[in-house]
């Protein structure tokens, strides 16, 4: 579906430098702190930014040469860009019909607006943040797109609406084969629930690419004193950071340490904790 090969983009002190693939039917979560290059990557994938080096292919074609039909197969949400807020949903619908013609299913869209309590006749500027976010995602999923690129689609939503939105996204993926998603979020529990694969990015570089199941089932965080740390087998320790109690160590072989060091505190570790241990900053 998507291939990003040796992509490089430099701004002053920042350089994005990454490679990864997304297969058909795959949902990939992109996780990183603020300013590590997620939006730069997303904009490059959409052909809105010209990379300094590297190749990006979507649907088997360079993103610089996507046809109008290819572009119609992409659904996008960005946190800070949208249709004019002066428009009502009824007016936005007309734009969608003009852009995507038969691919835009107006009846189904109306039904979903109704379910999410989004009024068709009210200007979007009068919507709450949550309502605007719901509408953005609904629009991205309204024209049979095969590839969804979702930048922070659940930010600003309460837990109930977030779950509702994630359910809608899951239904969208289940409806048809070969749909793929690249989604960024600061809410790692959303990604754990939804994604097959997680990419961690820090300072413009990918620091981990891993199947979500592997991450949750085999990775772990060892919390050890300085003395325990010095006698610990280091072979399966991916990173260690100093803490008040000694060291927090990331392993991709949790069971090995559970079996061989039964007295050590070993936690499963969330995606956020894995990111914190692998990311730059703090003493290693
Ligand atoms: N047009 C630009 N000109 C100069 N520097 C830029 C430009 N766009 C982005 N940058 C820099 O590139 C780096 C990555 O920015 P980017 O917006 O891609 O990060 P991000 O991971 O999306 O952050 P956030 O989560 O806060 O949205 C930052 O240091 C930013 O200041």
TrEMBL record:
- Is the keyword Nucleotide-binding in the record? yes
What is a GO molecular function of this protein? ATP hydrolysis activity
InterPro entries in UniProt: AAA+_ATPase (IPR003593), ABC_transporter-like_ATP-bd (IPR003439), ABC_Transporter_VariousFunc (IPR051782), P-loop_NTPase (IPR027417)
Matching SMART domains = AAA
Question: Keywords in UniProt for this one?
Answer: ATP-binding, Nucleotide-binding, Transport
Residues of the ABC transporter domain: 2-228
**Carries keyword ATP-binding?**
yes
Protein name, per record = ABC-2 type transport system ATP-binding protein
